[in-house]
Amino acid sequence: GNSVTQMEGPVTLSEEAFLTINCTYTATGYPSLFWYVQYPGEGLQLLLKATKADDKGSNKGFEATYRKETTSFHLEKGSVQVSDSAVYFCALSDYNSGGSNYKLTFGKGTLLTVNP
Amino acid sequence: KAGVTQTPRYLIKTRGQQVTLSCSPISGHRSVSWYQQTPGQGLQFLFEYFSETQRNKGNFPGRFSGRQFSNSRSEMNVSTLELGDSALYLCASSLEGRDNYGYTFGSGTRLTVV
Q: How far is B47 from B40, CA to CA, in rounded Å?
């Protein structure tokens, strides 16, 4: 079955530091890949997505590139802010590769804390 | 436009009781999915409904059930509650349940079973 593995947290950075959160996946075909963010006490918000190999998703300074050869979708940001402190989830959906599960498969989540 | 609305936000129930959670999707969205979030298991898929039909179900016992109404609102029910059912239950809506249209999540219902 499909699975997503992302780096264990927590990750603690100082403001303006560079962020990388690793994410790798196992799936048949060509899944769509997502990063979601969860702020304390809230639901999930879509941060960015990529639907085919070599696509780069970007939003609010965050970027991730769909790497088919390494089955990865690492999240990066050049300069983090205190307001970026949250839990980040990598996820996949197999609909576009012929799947009909109509669901997202999530990684365990990575807690990011950014200190001023 | 209004987002995904989940009610109630917080719930405390006693072991053995049953509970019903509600989700109102974004207007025009016909697909509603439910997820359970716990510290140990993370986010796990419960089920997905589209036009009142369950199209997919996760690996949860039969105590977990759901339904969708003609106006796309959805409810999930958990019977004979166990302590391990304590979790944040998240609902997500989308136009057709296909990822190209995106999934929008509600703020969740936090269920505590004592």
A: 20
Residue A84 has pLDDT above 60, yes or no: yes
**A26: β partners:** A3
Count of pairs with CB atoms under 8 A, one residue in A, one in B: 63
The residue of B4, B21, B43 whose CB has the most chain A CBs within 10 angstroms, and thus the best one to mutate to test that interface, is B43
Q: Quick: pLDDT tens for B9-48.
A: 999 999 999 999 999 999 999 999 999 999 989 999 999 9
Structure tokens at A74: 């690492």
Long-range pairs of A3-7 with CB within 8 A, sequence gap ≥ 24:
A3/A27, A3/A105, A4/A90, A4/A91, A4/A92, A4/A105, A4/A106, A4/A107, A5/A107, A6/A88, A6/A89, A6/A90, A6/A107, A6/A108, A6/A109, A6/A110, A7/A110
Token pair listed for B25:
């999707």
- How far CA B66 is from CA of A56, A97, B48, in Å, comes to 36, 27, 9
**Omega before residue A10 within 30° of 0, cis:** yes
Residue B95 and residue B87: Cα distance in Å, rounded? Answer: 26
